[in-house]
Target: Dynein axonemal assembly factor 4
Amino acid sequence: MPLPVSDYSWQQTETTVFLSLPLRGVSIRDADVFCTEDYLKVNHSPFLFEVFFYAPIDDENSKAKIGNNVIVFTLYKKEAAMWETLSVSGVDKEMRQRIREKSILQAQETAKEASEAKAAAKREDQKYALNVMMKIEEEERKRIETMKENERIKATKELEAWKEHQKTAGKPEKIQKDEKFHQQKKKIEEERKKLNNKKSLTKNVASRTLPTKGRDSENIFCEKLKEDNVPAPRTLGSIKINFTPRVFPTALRESQVAEEEEWLHKQAEARRAMNTDIPELSDLKEEEKNPEWLKDKGNKLFATENFLAAINAYNLAIRLNNKIPLLYLNRAACHLKLKNLHKAIEDSSKALELLTPPVTDNANARMKAYVRRGTAFCQLEMYVEGLLDYEAALKIDPSNKIVQNDAEKIRNIIQGTELKS
Model:
């Protein structure tokens, strides 16, 4: 049942109404404000505030500021005039219900119009963006086509220039070959004339020069073929090399195994002695691999107010076995001491999940989980949630005086009759 709020103050000018509504523990996150031109509602559990305006207001331009346990409204009147009262008088229950329904319908219509306008604006933006993208793509396509055409023209010109160069460069070379051929032919004819004058030596000269010349050419050609006949390169292959895995970067032949093993052992002992982080499971002793032993160690550290070390012990125990509810319950107590309130809520909730089914044997643990979670909620100024957890704890143990007194204090804080502690 919501609690109606009647404690408020208001001031006005001819165009504006200033409304101040005090609510303990109110914040932007959990305050529900609904406003139309005729009706204003504020819902902050368990409080409810309603007002039916004396005259219409401009709900679109009006605004509210939430903070410091108060909500301040700045409401602009649609017509400049001084109001006799803030809320219209003489309104029965049925009339109020009609005003509420009318305000809800009006808000729905306004939200629908805003949604349609937003959707239309979004469509226009998408259409404009699509047109711009099409234009950009068309310009890019034209630019690429122009580049291709320019490259084609350039390549064609270069090819034509190369062909012309080949024609002009090849013609003198042909002429030189022809002249050299004519000179050789003329020389051969002169030699033949000389040979004809020496008839007795013609056959010998012919037999010694021409065949010898042919054999020398053949021998040179064969040697050239032998030089060009180079064997093909060998096929590629891969060699797989396996290295022995090592913790240290040095090679095994350069290291001293005994000294390295001693160093690793000392590092593991130092981590256990410092207890500043969670060690690796391979570094643990046999007794340290037992979750119950770790839980007892965490309890002893908690008793000496070494809460960080106790959390580390519980963390390692949870790594070994995450189904023990007392580990989460004890770690929640450590987080409460260290003001890690969100972690305390999370661990208490996990403990309650594991403490099922609710039986007599786990009643004490369930009550502690509710109390610790409720304490964390209250320290976060979430008093309604904290009160629910304390009431759940009282259902388990109704005769617990300490829990009863704390629950009563939380109720007084919610109702505003007691200051926060």
